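Sample entry (149 residues):
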Amino acid sequence: MKSQLVFILLAIIAGAVLPIQAGLNVQLGKSVHQPIFAAFASFLIGTLGLLIYLFIIKFDFSSIAQTKTVSPVVWSAGILGAFYVTAVIILAPRLGTALTFVLIVAGQMTISLVLDHYGLLGIPVKQMNWRRLLGVVFLVAGVLLIRQF
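Predicted structure, serialized as tokens:
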């Protein structure tokens, strides 16, 4: 468990920065009256940041040739990321940050259970059980509570 503590903390921090990113992207989108531009700018700056990081770690760019063996479907991850960021920019001002993210987490947990149960996308199989389903039920209950108040 101790060896996983760093990864658990990293996951919590990654989750914590998403609402902050949403708020910043909403502000950018409002400044130009276009949420799609905010998503574009977010990905552009993120791409530049990652490129700089690759140079810092001295990434072997010749290994990019190995991506030819990857299924074309894998490249759709970028579109999914763009959809996610754009949806958050549009939804957060309308639903509020808390409701937006609790709905996102509910969606994430639901599809995660399916991915785990069937071992889709190369994920190790982890059978669905009543406790895991109960966790999703609690998330949905949280959605209802946050929606009401």
